[in-house]
Design a protein that fits this description.
Radius of gyration: 53 Å
Low-confidence stretches: 1-13, 275-303
Structural class: alpha+beta
Largest sheet: 4 strands, antiparallel
Number of helices: 3
Oligomer: single chain
Shape: elongated
Order of helices and strands: HEEEEEHHEEEEEEEE
Helix content: 55-70%
Strand content: 15-25%
Strand order of the largest sheet: 2-9-7-4
Length: 303
């Protein structure tokens, strides 16, 4: 009986040793798995922090802002059409309102007529100046002819005066030749003065031409302003966005500066928040921002 007990104890010892070895291996495996899991968890947390977590901001003082545009007319008139409604998306350059253009078309037609009249006045003065230059040339030719006639008259007077002194001619002929010389001299003097007068008239016409050109420039500016005013009757969206705060109606009379509506670019909103006494503005588009509004925390994804 004693021998059987000892044998049983001897055989049971290796069994307990094997069980202890298996438990140690299990602990080491569990520890290794825990380490691996911790590494993966740390890597996942690091990746999440780098891509998302570092952009998360928690605050109880934040608001969403956007650079919207208040649409106002540049001219006065009655609203003829409003082809957009509140909360409607519009594209840049899309027509959002029209002002009755009839008065401005009439003003443009009048401005164009004024320009045409000024151009005609300039053309008339240019023709008058050209005609006056011809008058100056004619006067110069007349002076040249007068000079030739005067020389002949002077020669006749000298000849008849000499004949009268020698008794071969009469005093009357000498007097007549002297009178003719004086007439030719007077005509030469008058025609010479005519040249000066014609040249001064050219200067007067050129001054009038300069004034007419200035008037044309002024009227062309008026025409350009009339074109601009006519173009202002069509109001377009300055950029893509959503219509809001629409206050105009068809038939309403508006003046420059009257608020008609707002265009809000919802794709360009940004968050302004106070966090740890630091002003955080213009957060990057698309990044999530965790905010707490009063006692209800939530997540706002910007963009």
């Amino acid at each position: 009986m004693r021998d059987m007990t000892q044998t049983t104890q001897f055989r049971a010892a290796p069994s307990r040793a094997g069980a202890g070895l298996s438990a140690a291996r299990l602990k080491r495996s569990a520890l290794g798995l825990a380490v691996v899991a911790g590494v993966f968890a740390g890597a996942d947390y690091g990746w999440h922090y780098w891509t998302t977590g570092r952009f998360l901001v928690s605050t109880d003082d934040a608001y969403v802002d956007v650079h919207s545009a208040i649409i106002s007319p540049k001219i006065s008139g009655y609203i003829a059409a409003v082809p957009v409604d509140d909360n409607q998306r519009v594209k840049a350059g899309q027509v959002i309102a029209r002002i009755d253009p009839r008065d401005y078309r009439t003003a443009l037609d009048q401005a164009r007529a004024n320009v045409t009249a000024a151009e005609a006045a300039i053309a008339t003065l240019a023709q008058q100046i050209a005609q006056q230059h011809l008058a100056v040339e004619q006067a110069q030719q007349a002076v040249a002819s007068d000079q030739a006639v005067l020389v002949y008259a002077q020669q006749n007077f000298q000849r008849y005066a000499a004949l009268a002194r020698t008794g071969y001619g009469t005093v009357q002929q000498a007097q007549l030749s002297r009178s003719d010389q004086s007439q030719k001299q007077a005509k030469l003097t008058g025609d010479t003065a005519g040249i000066a007068s014609a040249e001064k008239q050219i200067a007067v016409l050129e001054a009038q031409l300069a004034q007419a050109r200035a008037s044309l420039a002024q009227r062309e500016a008026g025409e350009h302003q009339a074109e601009l005013n006519l173009s202002y009757t069509t109001i377009t969206a300055p950029f893509a966005g959503t219509v809001g705060v629409r206050t105009l109606q068809v038939g309403q009379y508006v003046q420059p500066g009257t608020q008609l509506m707002a265009i809000v670019p919802l794709h360009q909103v940004y968050v302004t928040a106070n966090y740890m006494e630091t002003q955080l503005t213009h957060l990057r588009r698309g990044q999530p921002v965790t905010i707490a509004v009063d006692t209800f925390p939530g997540t706002l994804v910007h963009g």
